[in-house]
Each structure stands twice: as C-alpha cells, then as structure tokens.
C-alpha cells in the first residue's frame, strides 16, 4: 500500500504522467466541505513532510496527512478511505 507522498512522487517523476493533470484534495478547515483541491501545476515542492502549494511569493505547506484524495485525469489513484487504487 502506497502513501500519498509516494503516489505524488511517482506522478511527478514517471514520464507516463503529466503532473499538471494530477489533482490533490486535502483537508482545509473553513473551506466549503472543509476540503480544497489543487492541480499539479500549483504544487511547487514535494518535501519529505509536506507538499508546498501556491504561487510565489504566496505559498502554503500542506502536510501529507491532510491529503484526502489524488486523481489523475479524473481517475482516483489514492484516497484516504481506500488508500492505493493504482494498479
């Protein structure tokens, strides 16, 4: 079973994926439904403990444990409930 960071790293480094087509949803208190989603093009850095999102100079660290779902072109690769959906 892969963790969310592992899925993101694969999507970033594997030439079979276009990282801008990845969508990452995460817990965001105060947002509608307490969840926000960003496309891969808004992910600036995949650190060991968090992903950094935004546009310079306004960036935000999002810890991996707050990620709820990762999709690629509409297909769920990982979600918190079912974990790894990728084949």
Structural features:
SH3 type barrels, 87 residues, 8 strands, globular, mainly beta, single chain, 1 helix, 3-stranded antiparallel sheet, 5-stranded antiparallel sheet
Number of strands: 8
Instruction: Tell me the domain tally.
Output: 1
Order of helices and strands: HEEEEEEEE
Radius of gyration from the CA trace? 12 Å
Q: Can you tell me the CATH architecture?
A: Roll
Helix fraction, binned, reads: 10-25%
CATH topology: SH3 type barrels
Low-confidence stretches: none
Provide the CATH top-level class: Mainly Beta
Which strands sit side by side, in order, in the main sheet? 2-1-6-7-8
SSE-based structural type = mainly beta
The average pLDDT value, as a whole number, equals: 92
Protein described:
- The mean pLDDT is 92.
- The strands form 2 sheets. Strands 2-1-6-7-8 form a 5-stranded antiparallel sheet, covered by helices on one side.
- With 87 residues, the protein is mainly beta.
- The chain has 1 helix and 8 strands, in the order H-E-E-E-E-E-E-E-E.
- The chain is globular, with a radius of gyration of 12 Å.
- A hairpin with a 2-residue loop joins strand 6 and strand 7.
- The longest helix is centred in the N-terminal third of the chain and has 10 residues, at 4-13.
- It has one domain (4-79): SH3 type barrels (Roll), CATH 2.30.30.
